[in-house]
Amino acid sequence: MTTLNELKKLKEKAVKELKTREGKATAKITVGMGTCGIAAGARDVTSSIMEEIEKRNLADVIVSQSGCMGYCEQEPLVEVEKDGQKVIYKKVDAEGAKRIVAEHVVNGNIVGDMVFSSEK
Amino acid sequence: MMIELALNILDLVENSIKAKASFIEITLDESTINDILTLKITDNGQGMDNDFAQSIKSPFITTRTTRRVGLGIPFIRQITEMCEGEFKIASEKGKGTKLEAVMKNSHIDRPPIGDIAGAIRSLIVLNPDIDFKFTYKKDNSDYSIDSREWKEVLGEVPINSLDVQKLLKKDINEGLKNLGR
Predict the structure, then answer these.
(1) What is the DSSP letter of A102?
(2) Using only C-alpha atoms, what is the Rg of chain A?
């Protein structure tokens, strides 16, 4: 129950921060978590993305999950939605996930060698 | 085939998410005394007819539209059969679905539980609109986390905000460590 006390403290701080940031997300990262994605390593990719976000303190990035998109042979697939553009990356591993966060989510440069598809 | 039970759990929970569940309960019960490991997943999703629920133990029965084979349930069923256990599924339309996978804990084919802390954390963070209760029992001790309790304290602060994520990680890791995991 000590955690819930910590949580209460954290909440007070977070409420103040929410007001200054207006809760707007600058990017959304979605990891494919169907049977195919998970078997191909999507859980490690997700952990890697979450670690990188934590390390860089990216409070305005949302991580989400989706089911199978039908391209099982390209899994793990990771979609990044940023500045009105959607990019899907294929065969992402833990290292690739870190590159996506650093190069695309933070710096706005699409990681060319891993792109599966992109649309405006 | 999944290499960790934690991955089977993620995979099976995906079925509950697709069934539009708003609450998913995951219980792992490891009894070294009786040498039995039981995994239970219960959701309040849309459920299925019982006949259909029994038929999906076959990989060739699936609701998938992207291909004609569904492997999530067959994978866990195969594991239970390899480990001298059994797999049960019960479902009711409009009420939800219950899965139970029983394995002989010490069986050589019993996959490692793996990074269950990472799996539970990512389920809670990646699906902020769904509530999860996770319990890990080991003989006479247990650890439990219920996202509904966290959300009650958090109020308007999202459960997937960065600071909450860090605390979730700490709580789950420490809780499981206390059980010797």
Answers:
(1) I
(2) 16
Write out residues 112-141 of B within 8 Å (CB-CB) of A: 115, 118-119, 121-122, 125-127
What is the domain range of residue A40?
A: 24-119
Partner-chain residue, chosen from A7, A38, A53, that has the shortest CB–CB distance to B11: A38
Domain containing residue B86: CATH number = 3.30.565.10
Q: Is residue A1 part of a domain?
A: no
* Tokens (6 digits) for B92: 């009711």
Residue A34 within a domain: yes
For chain A, the domain total comes to 1
Which of A50, A54, A72 lies at the smallest CB-CB distance from B122?
A: A50
Q: What confidence tens digit (pLDDT) does each residue in B129-155 have? A: 999 999 999 999 999 999 999 999 999
ipTM of the complex: 0.82
Q: How far apart are CA B19 and CA A12, in angstroms?
A: 35
Chain A nearest CA to B159, separation (Å): 10
Q: How many domains does chain B have?
A: 1
